[in-house]
Design brief:
elongated; mainly alpha; 74% helix
């Protein structure tokens, strides 16, 4: 029984890979490391803005808790950063699973 289950899971993985590659690969041009630089830079900038907002909030802090407006700005930066990290992670998964073509890195 376990052999049939394992075989089905292996076949499902193969099917998932084929379908994802069939759908994703035509929509995204071949990626190179240079193509990833703007993405990595964007995520780093977003992280920096989030951290700067946090530190600015702490520096401006008095004994009073942060205002709703301050928290709203901090939340905005966190949500932006989190979304970019998740998207970059999804792209990394696409690359790892070979759903799209990549250009070899020159040495």
């Amino acid at each position: 029984m376990a052999i049939d289950n394992n075989r089905m899971l292996l076949e499902a993985e193969k099917l998932r890979r084929e379908i994802n590659r069939e759908i994703i690969n035509p929509l995204i041009p071949v990626l190179s490391l240079d193509d990833l630089r703007p993405l990595i830079t964007m995520v780093a900038r977003s992280r920096a803005l989030y951290m700067r907002e946090l530190l600015d909030l702490a520096r401006a802090s008095t004994d009073a808790p942060p205002t709703d407006e301050q928290i709203q700005r901090l939340r905005h930066h966190r949500e932006t950063y989190d979304e970019l990290v998740k998207a970059a992670g999804a792209l990394e998964t696409v690359i790892e699973r070979e759903y799209l073509d990549v250009r070899p890195t020159r040495k």
